[in-house]
Automatic annotation (TrEMBL), chain A:
Gene3D superfamilies: 2Fe-2S iron-sulphur cluster binding domain, sarcosine oxidase, alpha subunit, N-terminal domain. InterPro entries: 2Fe-2S-bd_N, 2Fe-2S_ferredoxin-like_sf, 2Fe-2S_ferredoxin-type. The keyword Ribonucleoprotein does not apply. This is (2Fe-2S)-binding protein. It comes from Neoroseomonas soli. Keywords: Oxidoreductase. One of its GO terms (molecular function) is oxidoreductase activity. Signal peptide: none annotated. Residues 12-91 form the 2Fe-2S ferredoxin-type domain.
From TrEMBL, chain B:
Keywords: Oxidoreductase. InterPro entries: BFD-like_2Fe2S-bd_dom_sf (IPR041854), FAD/NAD-bd_sf (IPR036188), FAD/NAD-binding_dom (IPR023753), Metab_Enz_Cyan_OpOx_G3PDH (IPR051691), Opine_Oxase_asu/HCN_bsu (IPR017224), SoxA_A3 (IPR041117). It comes from the Bacteria. This is FAD-dependent oxidoreductase. Residues 400-455 form the SoxA A3 domain. It comes from Neoroseomonas soli. Gene3D superfamilies: BFD-like [2Fe-2S]-binding domain (1.10.10.1100), FAD/NAD(P)-binding domain (3.50.50.60). Residues 1-313 form the FAD/NAD(P)-binding domain. GO terms for molecular function: oxidoreductase activity.
Amino acid sequence: MKLTRLRDASRPRISLTLDGTPIEAQQGDTLLTALLAGGAGHLRESEFGDGPRAGFCLMGACQDCWVVVEGMGRVRACATLAGQGMKVRRG
Amino acid sequence: MKVAVVGAGPAGVRAVERLVAAGLSPVWIDEAPDGGGRIYQRPPPGVNRDARTLYGFEARRATALHTALDALKPRSDWRPETLVWHIRPEARQLHTLHRGRQAGVDYDAAILCTGAMDRVIPVPGWTRPGVTTLGAAQIALKTQGCGIGGRVVFLGTGPLLWLVAYQYAKAGAEVAAVLDTTPFATKARATPGLLRGGATFVKGLYYIAWLRRRGIRIAEGIAPLAIEGDAGGVTGVAWRDASGREHRVACDAAGMGWGLKPEAQLADLARVPFRHDPLQANWVPERDAAGRTPVRGIYLAGDGAGIGGAEVAEIAGARAALALLEDAGHRVDPIETVPLDRKLAAQARFRAALERAFPFPSHLARGIADDTILCRCEGLRTGELRAAARAEAATGPAPEMNRAKAFTRVGMGRCQGRVCGVAAAEVLAAELGCDVTAIGRLRGQPPVKPIPIPAAGDAP
């Protein structure tokens, strides 16, 4: 999944990492936006072996966008703002 | 008197406004960092977009609501980023979680304005990255300036289908197709009733006409076949048209939804009884026209009390607050309540026409293929629920939804059946040859959303 930036796409840049790989994002991005616009493709693997997941409802209800942030623990990527230097692992 | 309002969307804002005007300072809680609800959700700090691009025709309404919201924050006990994860009506207490910290909030009366989410029907491939709800597609654009893909198919039915497609096309995304499961004739038949909606109806027609004028592919009365993809994500959507021909369009993302369903878990935990509304095809908590429930001290307003839309939510929020004040012995002039009641009644008639124009296609839910994932949390396939239903029906008592959950884990996952519950009930009903109302609904369980274990351990 690749989110496409359509509007207001020239905000100040921030950088974070996903499983050690650098991701460039923008101030005001949620983690979901930062990762999926930054080329991550997916956010986690289904525990039942049916493939990758990348969120579904984007309103904090479906719980399908869980990732782990160093120092914060498990969070919903859609409901967490991306921050400079965040170290993220797939959920 | 201790009053709590849960939710700061259109209903919550107008409820708090009336309470504050009566001299009260309610505890006001929202899970999001700011108010506005989903419909008037504000982008995070740093994302700068004017109200007109964000909210379109609703810009004036959104701005007015935000102005009221900001003015009310210092006049109430405003608690953003706070999840109400349980409500205990016998103790009149809310359990909340804010940044990992537990708190108990005592109330004498509470107004629950908990909103709604998309109602979905599983389609083969719907768990792929690149498939979201229609609401999600709209939130990505509204609050993040992003499309869910570069070339998007919108699939489902309801006003939101057409609105989101319009918003995407207008923002410069390529809309590969709009696929409405409702036939044109069904919508046309509902037109006389829809005319009651005035401006709302005209706006809807405008979106559809605008999309047609742009030459965007539109198909009505379709049955979705699959959201196709590969390791990289979504590659296309396939469907069958009304005459039985199969079609496919290439895309890299798909948004889907069939109307909305109330987020009514807290009303459920507060022991408000539910009834099945055949027109909305939703279970809704019982309340009177003013928002009073059979549970003393519990009031409901907005989409969480039955889908009505943002305009209705504002009126209902104000009305529920006045009902609360009346019940608490405040003098409330009928000059305030009568016009609200009249507006709510008129809007209910428009809503009924809208439901008839975009009916929930239960036949699609009942016909989900056996190997399609039904419950995305538990990776449960539709055939597994059917098999369990058959086995149960042969031996035990008539299965109902919560029993099916115990046997198959349908709806037992992290979303608690918010996503799969509606479709699962249809599948179960079809398998047992009974009406969906006989299947019941998944009961709400605390915590209404996952919370860290240490937080639960600290519960007050």
